[in-house]
Structures are given as C-alpha cells and as structure tokens.
Description:
By secondary structure, this protein is α/β, with parallel strands linked by helices. It has helices at 54-65, 80-83, 86-92, 102-112, 182-196, 200-210, 230-242, 260-274, 290-299, 316-327, 347-358, 375-394, and strands spanning 2-5, 8-10, 13-15, 20-21, 25-26, 31-33, 36-39, 43-46, 72-74, 97-100, 118-120, 126-128, 133-138, 148-152, 157-161, 217-220, 225-227, 247-254, 280-284, 300-310, 313-314, 334-341, 361-362, 367-370.
Amino acid sequence: xxxxxxxxxxxxxxxxxxxxxxxxxxxxxxxxxxxxxxxxxxxxxxxxxxxxxxxxxxxxxxxxxxxxxxxxxxxxxxxxxxxxxxxxxxxxxxxxxxxxxxxxxxxxxxxxxxxxxxxxxxxxxxxxxxxxxxxxxxxxxxxxxxxxxxxxxxxxxxxxxxxxxxxxxxxxxxxxxxxxxxxxxxxxxxxxxxxxxxxxxxxxxxxxxxxxxxxxxxxxxxxxxxxxxxxxxxxxxxxxxxxxxxxxxxxxxxxxxxxxxxxxxxxxxxxxxxxxxxxxxxxxxxxxxxxxxxxxxxxxxxxxxxxxxxxxxxxxxxxxxxxxxxxxxxxxxxxxxxxxxxxxxxxxxxxxxxxxxxxxxxxxxxxxxxxxxxxxxxxxxxxxxxxxxxxxxxxxxxx
Length: 399
Ligand code: FEO
C-alpha cells in the first residue's frame, strides 16, 4: 500500500508497455495513470486508470479499503487514459456516486453509457468526506473543456488532473522525496509541449486561479507526486511553458533526402557555434519523432527550418512539423529558413507562407540551395546563421 499522507493513498499504475501515448508520442520511460483514494468516513476515489490495468487497479483499491464500498468517484478529467475504468468500476461498486461537473458528466454518458448516480458540482463547491473536505475548481481547456482540479482543504493537496503531469513511469513510490526525480523534469517539458502546448492561455488562467491556494502536495494524473520545494518548481515550469518563454538557443530542424540539405544544416550549426551560440540542436524531421523536436522548440528562442522541395511543395515531414508548430500557437520566436531543390524551388515559398502565418520574427535572408552545397551557398548559409546569432545576442542582458 502506498500512503501519501494520513488517509490519502496512491492507487495508480505504471504503464511500461505502451510505446506511443495518444498513438503519437514515444514513451521511452513509460507513463503512469495516477489515481488517488481518500479512505475517510466516506471513501472517495479521484480519477481512474487505463482500462487495460483495471485488475491491478482493483487490487490496489481493495488493499486500502478491503470490502468497504467506494462512496464517490471524483472525475477531474475524462480522457480515456483516466476515465477508462469507469464502466468496470461501476460493476464492482454499483452504489458509487460520480462527482464531477456538467461537461464531464456528459462525456461519461458519451463514452460509457448512462451515469446512473451522479452529483454535479460547479466552481467552488465542496464535498465533505469526514476529516477531509474537497473543493472543486474548474480549469477548462487544460487541455480538455471539462478539466477541473480537486483541492483538499484539510491536507492542502491539489489533485490536478493532467495539469502538472509528465511522462515517465515510476521507479519506486510516487513520492518525489523517496526517489530521484531527475528524468521527470525533461519529460514534463516534453509532455507539456506535446499534449498541453496549444493551451497556453487556459493554463495561465488556471495558474491564476490556483495561485492563492496553500499547496503542500501536487497529485497529478501522470508522473510523481510533488512535495516541498518541488511544488513551486513544477508550477514555475508550467508557468514558463504556457507563457511560451524561452532561453537562448537554436533548434535546427531539417529534412534531407540525399544528405545535401543536412550538410547545409550542419554548416549553419557550425557557424552558430563559432558565433558563440552554445545551445544548438539539430533534428532530422524524418528520423526524430516530432515529440522531441517540439520540446526543444518550446525551450529555445531560435528556430531554423530547412527542407528540400518535394512534389512541387516541401518535404512531407517538414509540412507536418510546420502544422504541429502552428496548431500549438507558439509565440515570440526568431525564425530563419532555407530550402533546397534540384530544378524548381518550392520549399522556400512554402516556408515563407508558414512564417507569415505563425508571425515569428524572420531573421536573415532565406537561402535557395540548388542541388549540392557549393561555396556560394555555404557562404549564404553561414550569413543566415550569423544573422540568427546576432539577433539572439541582442537579447543578452549586460553582464
Ligand atoms: Fe492524461 Fe488528457 O489525459
């Protein structure tokens, strides 16, 4: 049994088998589906787990409450990685009352049939469990419309749904002070940029709403349980990412069919290094899952995109990356771009249309590279890199 504090227990599970989260995003360290059980005078379960793990989930619940019934199932978020066990849970606990907001309840019906016994709550409503009292706060669009958090007024725990979550299964208990949480910080940035990234403004509104709460423990639906000094650190990560704030550095995302565009990308990276930009990352858009490219794009101020012309347009994986950037509403970046071609250049036109649409500040002159990387094209690429380096250095604070 994993007790987090007093009557509050962890009954979530590790998924080390799934390879792609949402069918899209790689899980090199796995992922958790966190669920929490408050065994008070009334028993409240907060969120469930992926249906594939129901047996294990049920065992964990019974380990805590034995044959006692579950009085309330509190649903903070309805995405099926958390709601997937609702139907099975009802079979084992037919008397439980679903406690959630109106939008979530409609989703319960939509995904799992009728929600027979339910209690609809709204902003600021409370639920008394005995010693514990929970208060509910709506945080719509973080990252679904029905999302809410449950705040435990007794122990100052925020059960936050996907907010403050991260990829990575647990190597031990979920408590951050009982394990090494190092891997979760970068997995938090990747989770945020992949899953929540489009919803910067709703995340900011949620943070405003939660800012006056006394929080001793964050219990999200993915990743560790955060305590102590990690509480403000986690909040600051979500604050930074949702403001689209960056650090100095450049992501060079390139497509290359025969290595020529890659050579040009390498020339740009070398010049950036020579010019004093130390944080430069190159990603091949066809070989690196875009999950990792997006995480770096959320981190760094500079973006350089380069790709060959393909079918009178652009290399398909670059088209996809542009769409992924665009749909996340990423703001305040410096963008340089160049394209290659063998007989008719279309990629640069496509990159120009993209830059106009996203409204990034365009830096340097776009290069059109015909066939191989000849000395004059190399010079143009290096000039582009210098323009990006100069623009980044203009933002440096005086020492
Ligand atoms: Fe972890 Fe939005 O589900």
